[in-house]
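Dear H.,

Thanks for agreeing to be a second pair of eyes. The structure we're designing against is below in token form, covering all 119 positions.
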């Protein structure tokens, strides 16, 4: 079964175009390193919760938009090898990120159920 890396980050709303350009160049590195799909989603309906929410999770300021992204890999072994290559790739530098990477949350996930996938 596949393996998923998930990311949530706060991006300055005025840097949407810069974020998209960054994603277009960076996401190709993940694909070169074995990912099967990369999806970047610009927050459109991200409500504030009573206890917790996406905005709080990344300490988003009023002038920032929450971005939710994920990378699909064929399996965890491919992901581990691919991420090792990604981290060494000179195109993937923290300085190139148009957001505060210290407030990004991320993790790897093993799917336990899946519906509606077509290939």
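And this is the sequence the design step returned. I haven't edited it by hand at all.
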């Amino acid at each position: 079964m596949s393996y998923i890396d998930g990311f949530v980050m706060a991006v300055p709303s005025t840097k949407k175009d810069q974020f998209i350009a960054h994603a277009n160049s960076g996401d190709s590195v993940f694909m070169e390193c074995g990912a099967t799909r990369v999806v970047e989603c610009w927050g459109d309906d991200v409500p504030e919760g009573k206890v917790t929410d996406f905005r709080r999770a990344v300490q988003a300021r009023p002038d920032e938009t929450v971005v939710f992204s994920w990378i699909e890999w064929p399996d965890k072994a491919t992901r581990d090898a691919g991420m090792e290559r990604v981290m060494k790739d000179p195109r993937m530098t923290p300085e190139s990120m148009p957001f505060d990477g210290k407030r990004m949350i991320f993790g790897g996930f093993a799917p336990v159920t899946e519906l509606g996938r077509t290939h």
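Two observations from my side: The two ends are 14 Å apart (CA to CA). The chain has a mean pLDDT of 92.

Warmly,
E.
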